Amino acid sequence: MREMVAETALRPADFILPAFIANGIDAPREISSMPGVYQHTEDSLLKLGEEALEAGVRCIDLFGVPLDEEKDAEGSEAWNPEGALNRGLRALRREFGDELIIMADTCLDEFTDHGHCGVLSTDRHGATIVNNDATLPRYQKMAVAQAEAGAHIVSPSGMMDGQIAAIREGLDEAGMQDVAIMAYSAKYASAFFGPFREAVGSSLEGDRRTYQQDPANFRESLLETELDIEQGADFVMVKPALPYLDVLRAVAEMSPVPVAAYQVSGEYAMITAAGQKGWIDREAVMMESLMSIKRAGAEQILTYFAIEAARRLRG
Ligand code: PBG
């Protein structure tokens, strides 16, 4: 009877699996702060895609990890067709065609030597700043390169103002009207991203508080989401997930497009570490956290637990 009256149900197809492809490795490399998550080679990435599909997960979100010497001030590896990420996208598309939905992370931080999501410049007072508007044409180039490589969805995660309009225009001009945009609309400057920095070998010093949102703010998320929808977002996202369920619920209530939430690296790491210590039941907490994210209003959930949780749902 409990099942009959349950108000929320998780499905394997709700999950999106974030994955990493790295240059310069010849075997998958486990991320120490995210046990069970790996930087992949092309071969191991394709195996991961197979496992995802077998478990009923339909979408992979790919991040690229270049070598340090491939990074530069503007992140130009991001639009190099042979760059780590574009190579991975191409391999996935070649292997899986339209069976697996291939999503690309569209942000410069993995590719810049300073680790910021945009290019830097000096303001009129001599301070170094992330230059919002100078970043937009780079995002356009990156998105077009990703779509050419095979991405079905591009996902701008850099929180630059105007990024959705710029990318939509860039894709449309390149004749890629069919490529969708998942907008990281309400993304907070969060310490929960900690383990991700290791996952992508980030060069960042400092923080992203000038372009990501202050955890103190709620209303701002609704404005950011509205702007993204006006500019042509096909999906909007709230990130991180569990600490921001109030934001997620509010975005879900106002959004005319599908709403995603990202259960980030730190959320995964906390559940996994406490589970390893025997302090919590890892699997039960995993399923409960995902159920809560869905109950709060997410229709798609980006989670490093995607395959494990999907298998569990299928018994
Ligand atoms: C940056 C980006 C980040 C994550 C996804 N894209 C890190 C950041 O903004 O500092 C975090 C994902 C995670 O923690 O799992 N473009």
From TrEMBL:
One of its GO terms (molecular function) is zinc ion binding. GO terms for cellular component: cytosol. CDD domains: ALAD_PBGS (cd00384). 5-aminolevulinate 1 binds at R197, R208. Keywords: Heme biosynthesis, Lyase, Magnesium, Metal-binding, Porphyrin biosynthesis. Gene3D superfamilies: Aldolase class I. It comes from the Bacteria. 5-aminolevulinate 2 binds at S265, Y304. The active site is at K187 (schiff-base intermediate with substrate), K239 (schiff-base intermediate with substrate). Mg(2+) binds at E224. Pfam families: ALAD. It is an enzyme of class 4 (lyase). Its EC number is 4.2.1.24. NCBIfam families: PRK09283.1 (NF006762). Homooctamer. Belongs to the ALAD family. This is Delta-aminolevulinic acid dehydratase.
